[in-house]
Amino acid sequence: MSVASHGLLLLAAVASLLLGGCAVRPITPELAKYEPDGGYRWRMDHELPDNDPQTLFVLTFSGGGTRAAAFTYGVLEELRRTLVHTPRGAHPALAEVDVITGTSGGSFTALAYALYGERLFDDYDRKFLKRDVEGDLLRRLFNPLVWPRVLSQGFGRSELAEEYYDEILFHGATYADLLPRPTPRAIVGATDVSTGSRVDFSQLEFDVMCADLSRFRLSRAAAASSAVPVVLSPVTLDNRGGTCGYCSPEWITEAEHLGDRWWGGNRAELRFRQLALLQNSSERPYIHLVDGGIADNLALYGPVDMLQELLLNPRLRAAVGAGALRRVAIIVVNARSAPTFGFDKVPSGPGTIELLMQSISVPMNHYSSEGIAALQDLITMWRQRVELDADARRLGRAEPAASPLPAVEFSLVDVSFNAVADPRERDYLQNLPTSFALADEAVDRLRAAAAQVLRDSPAFQSFVAALARPQ
Questions:
Q1: pTM for the model
Q2: In the prediction, which pLDDT does 262 show?
């Protein structure tokens, strides 16, 4: 959102302390019985038409309001236009995508494509990208008729936003509606206020809380993923961990016991401990979520954790069928802005609202850089481990493995404003605000820029060529 709109919403937030009301927030659906393979979760055997089972193709959609939603949409459009010639026939590159992770602004595009598939390209720009979402929310927020609800303890500003997102985009859809869709899994993330850790909207994590994601509305997940602190209220989940018979999958239990013997298992171990914190419902009956960009603004740590777990644990590789994996392609769609701040030229410095926004965005950008570095380190680690295993086999020192680590061809594609060739266009894009209201021209230029960057990417072109090679 723009600084001016942030200011108006902050005023509304302050006003909420002066009034009261009675309203009830949506209750998180309860999971009566834990089913380890049930519900909406990513699996490598998730069958999609025209999809190569030996290729894992991941898109990560960053935060950044409508700027991010439009930029990520431009990538989907270009993938749809790009024809890949494979041993199974010719089809759009978009058909090869297995999973999309998203946060904040990018979560809307991820969830909307998972819900609508090809129909998204008919009217997403009209229904969402070119709509004054920010203005509509402000008008609703300042409508006295909704104050008794919004200004109560049980119903916050994010619940109002959730209702609006459902009205204009998601139309009552839940995660159960995504299960039969022939579209990639869309895993969007939010941030746990108490721990600062990432919480993904996947049944894997909802299992820990004994919550049923299938009955959870997509609009509420999008609201949680984009709930900018202070400006919007946290989205609250009811935590019933320990009541549905949940137990960690065998590969997680085995990994926990291995501990330091894991080969570079720091991130994976941290992730398991974060999941364990969600299970303690007696101490944490409620989990409060805010903007996912605070924990992971590139929505990249989910794929990094997933790949590290595959690297480290043969039991998991066998469970998800990763032994046949031959290619991994990750397109990191990064709509990070780099605005020119006028307050750098005056002695008084930034105002209160500008300072608040900077205090949020600076750590988010720092963690984004760390996410890219973590992914590059993991790719190096994977290749080294394959070489070590090959050496051990040649020397007769390798122990039989149920699922040996496959040699994988990695492709890492950067789609960001930094990759825009024209310096004037790059400067224009980097100075677009983090807002849910952009001019139609800005939306179109974002879409065109994303498509051009992807087309011009040598890494992407190499990946497209690799798909044509027989295994």
A1: 0.89
A2: 45
